Give the backbone structure.
Amino acid sequence: MKRFLSFSLVLTMIMVILAACGTQTGGSGTKTTVTIVSSLPRTGSSKGQTDTIVNAIKMRLEEDKYAACNGNVEIKYEDLDDATAAKGAWDETKEAENANAAASNKDVMVYIGTFNSGAAKIAIPILNNAGIVMISPANTYPGLTKDGKGAEGEPAVYYPKGTRNYTRVVPADDLQGAAAGNWAKELGVTNVYILDDTELYGKGIADVFAATAEANGIKIAGRDSIDSKASDYKALMSKIAATNPDMIYFGGITQSNAGQLVKDMRAAGMTADKVKFMGPDGIYEQAFIDAAGADNAEGVYATFGGVPPAKLEGKGAEWYNAYKAKFNAEPEAYAAYGYDSTNVALAAINKSCDSINRETILKNVFATKDFDGVLGKWGFDASGDTTLTQMSGQQIKNGAFEFVQVLK
Amino acid sequence: MAASQTPSSPQAAPLVPREPFLTKRRAFSIVGLIIFLGFFAIPIYQTILLEMWDDPGQLTQQIVIGLTKGTYIAVIALGYTLVYGILELINFAHGDLFMIGAFLSLIFISLFGLDPKTSSGITIFFSLIGILGLVMLCTALMNAGIERFAYRPLRKAPRLAPLISAIGMSFVLQNLGIFLGDGLIWDKIADGLGSDAIGRVADAMGSQSVAPKNIPDLLPNGQVFFIPNSLKYTYKDLLVAVVSLGLLAGLYSFVRFTKLGKAIRATAQDRDAARLMGINADRTISVTFLIGGALGGAAGMIVGLYNGTAVFTMGFTAGLLSFTAAVLGGIGNILGSALGGLLIGLILALSDQYIGTRWSNAVIFAILVLILLFRPTGLLGQEGGQKA
């Protein structure tokens, strides 16, 4: 017994020494590794969107052969999933898990994500403490960065260290909701019923829409929050029909049952020619048309905090064609944002060659100004918001979203 | 079960002597209720009643919508009540069986190539009846299988064991739903067999297994009667209500009037005594699960066609409502469950109209709590002392 004990002690010591040698040899190599992770809902009905974002990220990294600083820095990429199959959508624990994993891996220096604003609320503080820069291709909730545009105490609550580490490539909802409110006026809407899904993103954008619509002299017929897990909204739609609106605005996403909402709206006699349905970019995806059924979805309006991939110009148009040639599919709305997120991340790494660490890269991402990306010339302001403000409106025609006009 | 309502069955004497009406506990809850009504509820009720009075047409419309929804909640609730009546087991898998019913009907509809634009009314009518039969058969066999392999081996185990087993089955079925909803798998099968029909199933499911599926609008949308700006009632609503009520009536008379029904009631009342009387208890329980499964599948198809959506989580949502309906009406009692279902449908619709959609679930559970406070066994439930 005693002999066995001493034998295993010796064995353990040998292994410890070997392991130490292993890390040493790894460290003494000339190449530094920077890991870029993305945390997006890769399961569930957001998958269609995130597939194209991840494709765009990989496409950008391949262009530089997964290297930076003249080949002295090796770039690794990890595609993390913040959704669970059981929920079919992003999950708080999963997002926290991803952020913690990133924080504890010293090679991780850029975190591309999140897709959902609610998930960002969880990831930002964790990564703020770790000093990792976040670049979101899709979060639009204003309270994440802007003072006075969100709830009490926002955005300071998300940055426990007191410094900013979060940037986003899309314009926030205070701009999109207002653009939607102005577009409704242009479309000749006089009486609108506003719904939201009680979530951060949905309710926030519906609030901004309501304020803008009212300022534009549009009558608010009513305001309701829906239970996004309900099996149908027949009673609600009957209530709405009784107020005779000429538009229903829904602040929410496809995964909050937007498809069922439109189905029951049509069933209650509110056809596309009588009552318009408008939503934010959360319903601007093929999954929405699939869920509602093409017949019901026909004529639905959606705003988007940017320009659809096919309408990009200059470098953007080149990228669009390259993407289509490479993947043989249309990129979804956020793919270009995923591409430019990676773009600025690589640019920041290339600027930090002298000292590759989280702090320098973070500083250099925030310093992005007049960047010539696929989205045009843009940069980040001090709070991490993009300087882009161009929005667009689309409508479903013949079972697919079609670009209608640029919104201001 | 409806056991003690049968004249032939002896009324079981209550084992516990009736307690006086005004116990201390009850007095407290009555005071609480008065405070609740006086300070909170009545002011709200007043405005609600005024709103109802102002627009009777809208009120009628919501009552119609609510009752229609109530009928299918009742059909699902019956599945819970049947199993609870005979085994005292809350069959959590029932809601998910209902979801499988909706998926199966979408699969059969795609296989048969039914399309509201191209198929003739008569084809649709007869195919739907055929599909209803097929779906009911599949879910009935599935439910009986679940009983045979997940519940029967645990019949003598502590009561929590089959309950956990039921929750497990619920997860198994949910994952089966995700699997059935995966268009890519169907695509592979279709390619392998070179079958167009299975290709149509793949198209219906789409590429994302967990996304909601759109079920084609096959039920007639014409108006039964239509009063402008007040009442709208389509053949679709009527059909849902008629089929659901038919199933309810069929089940009630089956349990009440047939020999097998009598066996079910006897087994529910006292399994050992029933066995002594020569009733094959295992077979009777299997029959109960067959019927419960068929009802669940039928409800799945009805709801799928009515709402036009199949999604793997629909079983959980509907199951919660139906289980609440069963408890509200008195679980174990067929008429009670039906009543509970109708009530819940009604409350949901009225609450959507007058209180606000986001409060509807809270309203339902508040009413459930209030009713259980005064009638712990539910509206039509039996007092203790007997199993069913």
Remarks:
- The longest helix of chain A spans residues 2-27.
